[in-house]
């Protein structure tokens, strides 16, 4: 389903630049030079100002550009030098436009939104989007792919809100899915010089500094407090609140509905900034209420497909294997070890080229398995299969040695259309000199037996260790009880 066509706020903002699709801006800005010209304007704003059909007065656009540079400068004072990429700049620019409009011409702005909405509905044959009311623009959402810089956008949004000062918030709260992310956000806020406090079970004592942000996970909120514990009733935060929400819909559907109700109560009469890479997973024509809410809230869409078109994200390596009579277990084992070698080779390349990695902002390689089943009635669940493969690799060195030799020598029996082994031209870096001990060290932190630990204060997370080493991997799972039963078998 094409969710994008319903994102009416985003479509309105695109129309201000004389375009109807993000790709029209993407094509003109993706190769633009970062930084400013001799007059102190960003190269981004110079290109945007040249768009035919631009509906924003140039003096407004230049003022927004000046503001954006001031926000970046404030954060750079603490973090060091960073520059916004074009898509980050656009996310901040779209926010400038909306906040300025809400502050200085709210009635006119809502009227323009509704005029655009009615025209757009006729063009796209949409029949269920209601008109914007005064409360709708008080929630702004950012649909941005993982790795596209949502955290820094959030920090700039904080400064934007206080620049336009729509109201004086009684509380400023950042809501996260779990304690692990709360700690990460707390550390990142500190790096950006934003006053903040991490909720650890008590609200005693003053918040740290003016306009300080409380970082807390959604699971700590309840509608009504019962007994002791670290949970908080939402009524504790009276007044008009400024709320930031990171990935607010990562639980089960029933949990999402409960949390949404609590978040809405917290945000009543306030303002919300929400960030997610996965809005596409919750938006559906069948649930028109949720779709309508986010259709009016998502002001910027840089979802994965745009991220990928800019050269980020993951690419696929497809092996065309002729049909053979190879047994399924041999096929799975060989592919798992080949994946392991590919990951190990990436680690080698990363460690041997630190300057190149830094130049291109490349992070340390990550090996990800996406499982769909925790328990299986007839067949073994894929999560358990992956764990068994990892266990065998770690604990059966002879088997792994034979498998690696089979793959590197091109004797797997997996042939392509030219009747050559599909791995014949793979793993050139490893073939220059391979040591199994080094693979164990780099990938698993050393040799030993596989151990699995349930991580406290991180719901649904299990850590993986080899011997007495550090955690080398993590399993994030929804059905923890079912998973533990499978491990016990």
UniProtKB/TrEMBL annotation:
Pfam families: ResIII. Residues 131-297 form the Helicase ATP-binding domain. SUPFAM superfamilies: P-loop containing nucleoside triphosphate hydrolases. InterPro entries: Helicase/UvrB_N, Helicase_ATP-bd, P-loop_NTPase. This is Helicase ATP-binding domain-containing protein. It comes from Thermodesulfovibrio yellowstonii. One of its GO terms (molecular function) is DNA binding.
